[in-house]
## 1
Amino acid sequence: MSQDSVTKTIGVATGICLFCSLFVSVAAVKLRPRQVKNQRLDRIQNILQVAGLAGEEGDPEALYQERIQPAYIDLKTGQAVSEDQYQPDQVESIPAEQDLAGIKLRPLQSVVYQRIDGQTMARLILPIQGKGVWSTLYGFLALEEDLQTVAGITFYEHAETPGLGGEIDNPNWKSSWAGKRAYDEDGNVVIEVIKGQVDPASSDADRQIDGLSGATLTTRGVDNLIQYWLGENGYGPYLKRLREER
Ligand SMILES: Cc1cc2nc3c(=O)[nH]c(=O)nc-3n(C[C@H](O)[C@H](O)[C@H](O)COP(=O)(O)O)c2cc1C
C-alpha cells in the first residue's frame, strides 16, 4: 500500500483516535477514586476553615474526625434522624415562589456539622447552595454557638467569573461575614448582602454584608441562597428546635 494513500491516512488517524480515547477512558476510570478522595478532602478543609480550625496542626482528616460531629436532620421538622435513616438522594421540587436559591429541588434531609469543644457545640456548620450567574454555588455557612451570629462562610465549588463573581472566594470579603447578625432575638433572618458598601455608621451595619462590585448578580445569588437556607424552608425548623432545647 502506498505511504500516502487515503486509506492509510484514515487508518492511522482512526488508530490514533482509538488509542487516545482508550487512554483517556482508562485514566478517567483509574483516577476516579483519587478525585473522590480529593473532593472529600476539599470539603473537609472547607468545613475546618469555617469551623475556625484551619490553622491547627496535623492531618485535616484526623482533625475533622476528632473535632467535627455530623448531625443528620429532617429539614421540614428539624428533627434528628439516625445515620442509618439518612437518605441524601430523597428530594422534592420546590414551589417557584419559595425557590429563592434557584435550586428547583430540595433534599428532604441534610447533614450539618457541629464543632465540638469538650462536650459542647462551639459552632454549627450548615451546607448551602444556590444559583449564581454561571453556576450553582456550593459552600458552608457557620454560626457561632449562640446560633445567631455568623462565624464564617466559604464556597468550595462554583464557576463564577474570576475577578467578578469569583470574588466570593476573596478572603477579605469572606472574613467580613464573621460577627454579623444572622437572626434577631425572635429568630427572624436579618442578615443581608446589599448592593454596594455597608455604611459603618448605620444601625444595620451589624447585619449587612458588602456587595461585590461588578458582580451584582452573583451578590444577589448569595443573598438569595442565604435567605433560603436560613429561612423556614431551609434550616429554620432545625435551628428553632435547637434554640427551644436550650
Ligand atoms: C464575560 C462576563 C462575565 C461576567 N461574570 C459575572 C459574574 O460572574 N458575576 C456577576 O455578578 N456578574 C458578572 N458579569 C457582569 C454582569 O453581567 C453584570 O454586569 C454585573 O453583575 C453588574 O454588577 P454591578 O452592578 O456591580 O456593576 C459578567 C459580565 C461579563 C461580560
Note: Residues 133-134, 160-161, 164-165, 213-218 surround flavin mononucleotide (CB under 6 Å).
## 2
Amino acid sequence: MRRTIPSPSFVAVAAAVTATLAVTLVPGGTAVGQAAVPSGPNVVAFPQDWAKGTLYATVDRPDTKQYREFYTSAEALAAARAGRPIPDGTVITLAAYAAQADAAGAPLKDANGRFLKGNLLAVNVMQKKAGWGEQIPAAIRNGDWIYQSFTPDGKANDKANLTACYQCHLPFAKDDYLTNMAKLKGTFPTQAAAAAVPGAVTIAGFQFGPATLKVTAGQKVTWVNNDDTPHQVTLVGGDERRSDLMLKGQSATMQFDAAGNIAYICGLHPGMKGTIEVAARP
Ligand code: HEC
Ligand SMILES: [Cu+2]
C-alpha cells in the first residue's frame, strides 16, 4: 500500500517567525550573542496524518530516555535513497515517546535490546519550502528547512527552543541537514569506531569512557565520538573551553597545563559528565 502524508495547509503566520537577534543561552549555559528564532507558531502546520506516512527509522535515546519514530512521504524516501534532492514541501516528523521504564527509572528493553514505546511526548517537525530559509538568521539557517515542535495534541509548543533545532542540525549541512534520512543513501559519516588510545576518552552510548581520566600537566587529551549523535566537550567551572561539535568518528583535543580536577559535560547533552584529573609535573 502506498502511504503518503498529504501536504499540510500552510498557516499564514510567517510574521511570527521574523528572525530576531538576541542573547541566547546555548546548551551548557554560556550566554553568547547569537541569532535566535522565536518559539511559537510558524509556517510549519501540524502534520495531522503524520502516523500515516512511511516509518523509516526508530532511535533509542539513552540520554533522554526516549524512543523515537521518524516518518516522511514515500516520495521523499525515494529521493533520499536515490541520492536526489529532497522534494520541495517535504515534511519529516519525529515522534518522541517516553521509553517505558522500571521502578528505578531505567528504560525497559525488548528481546532485541531496544526501548519500549511509552507515552507520546512531542511531535517535532522539519519542513522545507523554497524561500522559507530567508526567515532564519543566516548564521544558523538550515537551507530552506523550518523547524517546529508540537505537543501531542497538535499545538505549537511555545516553550520549545527552536534556535537549538537549527544549531544542532547545522553540522549536517552537506546532507541537506538530515541525519537518519541521509543514512539511507549511505553518505552519513560512519567511520569505523576508533580504537582506545592512551590519553583518549571515547564517547559511546552517551557516556565518556573513562569517566575520569588522569593526565599530567602539559599533556593533551583527545575525545573521540563513536555515537551517531553529535557531542561537544564543554568544560565547566573556571576554564570554559568548548570543543567543536564532533560527529561520528570525529575527535577533539585540548591541552591541560595546570594541575587540578577539570569537570566537563557535553554541551548538547548536559547529563553527560566527565572529569580530567591533571597531576602536577613531577
Ligand atoms: C541536541 C541536538 C539536536 C537538537 C537540539 C535537535 N535535533 Fe533533530 N536530530 C538530532 C539528531 C542527532 C537526530 C538523529 C536522530 C536522533 O538522535 O534522534 C535528529 C533528527 C531529527 C529529525 C529527523 C531527520 C532525519 O534525517 O531523519 C527531525 C525531523 C528533527 N531532528 C527535528 C528537530 C526539531 C524540530 C528540533 C527542535 C525542536 C530538533 N530536531 C532539535 C539532533 C538534534
Ligand atoms: Cu552529547
Note: The chain has a mean pLDDT of 83.
## 3
Amino acid sequence: MKAAIGIDIGGTKIAIGVVDENGKILSDTQFPTEVELGPDNAMKQIISHVSEMREKHKEIAGIGIGCPGPIDTKKGIVVNPPNLKTWHDYPVVQEIESAFQMPVRLLNDADAAALGEYFFTYRHTYLHVLYLTVSTGIGGGIIINGRLYEGASSGAGEIGHSVIEPNGPLCGCGKRGCLEALASGTALTRIWKQRLANAGSPIEPTWGGKELFAQAESGDSLANEVIEESSEYIALGLSQTIQTLNPELLILGGGVVIGQPEFYKKIRKKLSFYLLNPHKQALQIERASHGAMAGVKGAAASILENS
Ligand SMILES: [Zn+2]
C-alpha cells in the first residue's frame, strides 16, 4: 500500500508521520519547534527524522508539509507567519526536495487539517466540503469537486478573518472584529474575563475555556452570555461561506468544538436560522474525527491524492 510523509509545523511543536492510504499512521514523532533558534535548526531535525522514516518505509511516495500562513504554496516558501517569527521567506520545499529527491508539497495548516479530515473519511462520499476549526485561532479549508481549493494566494477559507463586528476587538491580523477575535478559544476567555472585571467579580488568573464552560453549565449568566454570543458569531461567519459555496458537508473541528459538545450543538442550531432552505437541506454537519493528527494526515494526503 502506498504511503506518504506528513509534516505539521506549528509554533510550539513539529509533528511528522508516515501515513498510508487508509489514514493509518505507520510511524510518527514530534519535537519542539524552538522558533527562537530559527528554521535551519528545525530543518536539521526534520531531515534527520524523515531520513529514518524513509529507511524504515520503502513505499513512501512523497512529503507533504502543513505550515501556518502566510506562506506561498506555489513557490514553496514560508513567508512570515506570526507563530514562526524567525522564519522569513524560508524555502522549505527546496530544502526538503534537495535532501530527498521526491515530490514535496507545501500547504496552509488549516488546509492540511481540512484535507486530512476529508481525504481519509469522506473522499468516497462527498465532493464539496467546508471545514472550520475553532481552537486558539479559527481556520478553515475548502474542498471543491473532491480537491482542496487554495485560491490565488493560498489563502482560501480564511473564515477566521471575516469581519463580523466592524468596530469589534483588534485581531492578530491587524483588522478589527474578525471572527477569530470574537469567537476563538483565546477570544472566549479574554471576553469572559473582561466582563467579569467590568462586573467587579473575582477572577482567577489561571481560568481558561474549561472554567468558562463549567461555569456556564452551572448556570452562570455571564458565562452563558459569552458562549451564546460567540456561537452566534461562528454561525454568522459560517453562513456567509455556506451561502457562497453551497457545500454538501460541513466539518467542525478544533479543541473548543470537540471538547465542548454543547458548543457544537449551539453552533448547529444557530446556523440553521441563517441558511436558505436549499442550502440547509443539502448540508450535512459532522464533527472532526482525526484530532491532533489531522494536520500530519492531511499533509500526507496532499501527496497521496496525486500519486
Ligand atoms: Zn483577523
Note: The mean pLDDT is 96.
## 4
Amino acid sequence: MRISADYHTHTTYSDGRTSHEDNVRQAIKLGLKTIGIADHAWGHAFYGIKKDKLREIKQEIDRLKERFPEIRILLSIEANILGRSGQLDVTEEEMALFDVVQAGYHFGSKPSSFDDIVSHLINYLNRLFGLFKKTAIKRNTTALINAMKRYPFHILTHPGDKGPVDIVAVAEAAIKYNKLLEINQRHHYLTVEQLRLIRDMDVKLIIGSDAHRLEDIGQVADCIQRVIDAGIDPVKVVNLRTI
Ligand SMILES: [Zn+2]
Ligand SMILES: [Zn+2]
C-alpha cells in the first residue's frame, strides 16, 4: 500500500524548512498525484503564517500550478481549534481562499478566551502528570465536535494529539459533518488503539505526513502500519492505494 496524495506538508512560512517549490518537486519525484501545502494559521503564537503574506503565498502557489501541471497542487492551511466553543483562528470567509482547509488542536495557539487558557492548562497537566484525564477528554471532545459543527473545513488533523479525546464521539461527528479524520505520521495520532475503536464506523480517513523537512514528504510508513494493525479497510482511507 502507498499514498497517492500528501495533503499535509509545511514550509518556511510556518515551522517547516522547505519552500513551496521544494515540496512540489519532492512530491513529483515520489510520484505523488497531489501535494497539499498546509502551514499553521495565524493564531499559532510561534509558527503561524503572517496574514500579510497570504497574497504572496497564493501567487506562489498559482505560479507553481502553472509550472508543474503534472501534479495537483493544493493551497491548504492548518487552522487552530481554540477552546470548547470550537472557534477557529480562520474565518469562514478566509477559508474560501484555500483549496483545502484542515484544523487541529495545538499547544501553541494564542488563547482567544479564558476558556482556551483553562483547556491548555488542563491538557498540559494531563500530559505532564496524568491529571484531569476525564475533564480533558470532555473538554477536547466538545471542542473538536463544535469546530466540525461550526466550520466547513475538510480534515481534522491528528485527533487526540496534545489533548485526549473520545474518538468514537469525534468520529460520529466527523460522519455527521462530513470531515476526514487524519492519520498523522509526525504526531502518531490517530493511534492503532483509536483506529480499532472506530474500525467499524463509516468514517472516512486520510493519511498525512505533516512533513516539516524535505525527506519527510510523502513518508507515511508508520501510518500505513497502523491501518494494517488496526484492521482498517484501506478503502476508508481516501488517499491510500493498494498496489
Ligand atoms: Zn498540527
Ligand atoms: Zn501540521
Note: The chain has eight helices and ten strands.
